[in-house]
Each structure stands twice: as C-alpha cells, then as structure tokens.
C-alpha cells in the first residue's frame, strides 16, 4: 500500500528555503559572540588574580620587614638606634631567597623625656631622674620593587 504524496504548496516550499538560506551562519555568529564574551571575562579574572597576588606579595614582605625592624629595636635598643646611623636588614623569605636588602636609616622624632623615680616610704633611696626615649619613628626607604609604593613605618 502506497502512501499518498503530501500536498505541499510549491510556493510555501520556496518560502521555507529562502528563510533557511537567510538564517545560515546565525548559529556561528552567536557562538563567536559568546566566545568573545567568555574571553573578555577570562581576561578580567586573570587581571584581578594578578593584582591580588601582587598585593599579597607586598603584604607578606611588609610583615617580614616589620618583624625585622622590631627585632632590631629589641636587640639594639631604642636609645642606641636613635644615637646610631641605622642598620641593614636582609631577611630570608619563605621560599628561601633573600631579595630584601634594605638599609634602614636612623630613627627620626626620637623624643627623650625625663622621668623622676622615687620609692614611696623609703627615705634611704634617693630620688633620681632618668632620661627615657618615649617617642620615635623608624621608616624604611622607598623601595617600590620590594615593598610596593610608599614606606613601612614603625612608630612608638
């Protein structure tokens, strides 16, 4: 048994073929636009990740430099640092390298204060005056390649 041929209007068939011809390449164009958007998004994410890694590196270096400055204050003493000519730090970073070699200048704003010391209810202990440095500021030189923009300052 044979099926009857469908009745298709020749005019409708030609119109369908014309529409299909106009739509050829639309999917390719949409795919290219989608790939372009994904590429722009990927570049933006890579840029943001690079900036975050750079900021993390500077923050880690600042922490190391601050700890070295504190260590110098503990070992040398504030009074000796204020009278001296500065010191050099060369800490080892976690990856085993030593890229930091900074000469820290002598502290600025070293302000000595005179304090009277006496013992209450003890006439045998004489009152004495002691000069103690109560304020100082220790800063790194500008070293943008290591520390980023600005300086690291340790104040008391």
Question: What is the strand and helix layout of this fold?
Answer:
Elements: H1 10-23, H2 26-76, H3 78-83, E1 87-89, E2 102-104, E3 108-117, E4 128-139, H4 144-147, E5 153-155
Global outline: rod-shaped
Share of β-strand residues: 15-25%
Q: What proportion of the residues is helical, as a percent range?
A: 40-55%
Rg over CA atoms, rounded to whole Å, is: 37 Å
Largest sheet: 3 strands, antiparallel
Main attributes?
alpha+beta; 3-stranded antiparallel sheet
Report on this structure.
Helices cover 48% and strands 20% of the residues. The protein is an alpha+beta fold and 156 residues long. The chain starts with 9 loop residues before the first helix and ends with a strand. The mean pLDDT is 77.
In short:
The chain is of the alpha+beta class. It contains four helices and five strands, in the order H-H-H-E-E-E-E-H-E. The strands form two sheets. It has a three-stranded antiparallel sheet.
